[in-house]
Amino acid sequence: MAEKMLKQVYGKKAGPLAAYRRVAVGEQGFAFFVRYELSLLFLRNIQGGLGIFIRGLFFRGLFRRAGRKVFIAPGVTLRHPRRIELGDEVILDEGCVLDAKGDQGDGIRLGSRVFVSRQSHLGCREGNIIVGDNVSFGPFTIVHAVDASTVRVGSDVMIAANCYIAGSPNYRHERTDIPMAEQGLEEGKGIEIGDDVWIGASTVVLDGARIGRGSIIGAMSLVRGEIPPYSIAFGVPATVRGRRETSSLKK
Question: Which backbone phi and psi does 2 adopt, to 5 degrees?
């Protein structure tokens, strides 16, 4: 994937402006690129309520779709916004990044009432990030979806600060005569996070993880493989240490 991205940026004989266009907006036309640049230049960093209102009004046309009452704070970075879809009442807090690079799949799709906290990064490299409703991403959290991998986050999910959700397969490394970046990636498995999940701070979730509905993942855990529904799990690697007590489970 690293080699593929480098070829996308540098593989064509063009100047730095063309390379920047490929990184920032993809294969959109020049008119869209100008609109994108003017929006960032004049609207991106306006402070206060006026800035929120103006960005909510004028940034809408940059996205593939944007719902009602979208809140875009100062300093938000958008890459390939035509591959980004926002539901109603989405909040993009100060300094967060939505980067949907690629030309296949859905890119980034956020449901309604999703809160992406300050300095968080949701990034695709040909992958997909699909998020349900009523979801919060804590500050400095990173979500990556690389190659064919899809990161799916259900509804009513809480993800604390400094988490890393790595929907990215490993690089192949069998050969030593060429760099690992040129050997491609193993087949991606993606990540599934069910509804009503709480993930504690500084947790890492690796490609292939499946976190069942209603589960709690303790802080500073490493999640790989499957966590059954309504589990309490933590550790490196995260293992099930208990079960949530609910009326439905007691029956």
Answer: -60, -45
